[in-house]
Design goal:
By secondary structure, the chain is mostly helical. Among the domains are: about 35 residues, no CATH class; about 60 residues. It is about 45% helix and about 10% strand. The strands form two sheets. It has a two-stranded antiparallel ribbon. It has a two-stranded antiparallel ribbon with strand order 3-4. Strand 3 and strand 4 form a beta hairpin. Helix 4 packs across helix 5 and helix 6 crosses helix 7. The chain starts with a strand and ends in a 20-residue tail after the last helix.
Length: about 160
């Protein structure tokens, strides 16, 4: 039999008196130590038990990371458009569920939020090509057909000294 000692008193461990807190939100919940330790993967110090709400968010976060999507990209888009990371994640996740790749979903999130909030976004020819599934040259031609003038960025003559030339 295992037990805890507190101020000289024995406290028996039962399946209804062992608690933990969700590492995300801090919500307290009862845990079954036998269930946690029986798999051989859990231990008393390194095991974190999420509540059901945070577990779903955590699973989505892990899935996004496995796909190559990092929280910093999501947060950057959210800050630029003054919205929550969860809203951006929702847009990206929706795109992923419809079969788009991560890069296209991030561009789509920027475009959708830009159309919604009026914050101007600039897209590279490479990004446009990724979205329409073509090479950069074809993407530029398509933009020109749509009467969209792509921006060309070059260094100005006379400023080579800034580059050490």
């Amino acid at each position: 039999m295992f037990y805890l000692k507190h101020k000289g008193k024995k406290l028996e461990i039962h399946d209804d008196n062992v608690f933990t807190r969700c590492p995300q939100c801090g919500k307290e919940r009862v845990v079954d130590l036998q269930e946690i330790l029986s798999s051989g993967d859990g231990d008393l110090y390194g095991t974190a038990i999420f509540c059901s709400g945070c577990l779903e968010k955590h699973k989505k976060e892990i899935k996004l990371q496995e796909l190559g999507l990092h929280t910093s990209e999501i947060e950057s888009i959210a800050r630029r458009h003054n919205t929550s990371s969860d809203e951006v994640k929702g847009i990206v996740t929706s795109g992923l569920e419809h079969g788009f790749d991560v890069k296209t979903c991030l561009i789509g999130a920027r475009l959708a939020l830009s159309l919604s909030d009026g914050v101007e976004e600039y897209f590279t020819a490479e990004e446009a090509a990724a979205v329409i599934g073509t090479d950069e040259q074809t993407a530029v031609q398509e933009m020109e057909k749509a009467d969209v003038s792509p921006a060309r960025i070059t260094t100005l003559p006379g400023f080579e000294w800034l580059l050490g030339k």
